[in-house]
Amino acid sequence: MALLHSNKxxxxxxxxxxxxxxxxxxxxxxxxxxxxxxxxxxxISTLQNYRxxxxxxxxx
Length: 60
Description:
The chain has three helices and two strands. With 60 residues, it is of the alpha+beta class. It has one domain (2-54). A two-stranded parallel sheet has the order 1-2. Strand 1, helix 2 (19-31) and strand 2 form a beta-alpha-beta unit. The longest helix has 13 residues, at 19-31.
């Protein structure tokens, strides 16, 4: 938890295959005071369905 709080202003992406658990964990993190939390719907396998050239990632 200390690692998360040291990155409090950054976007935190939660990745999980089971949407209910992923959502619950995102809500837990927001409840702990981490304001920028999102989830990758469908987990990491979602990214495997796309070609690498089609994925654009902006790091903040």
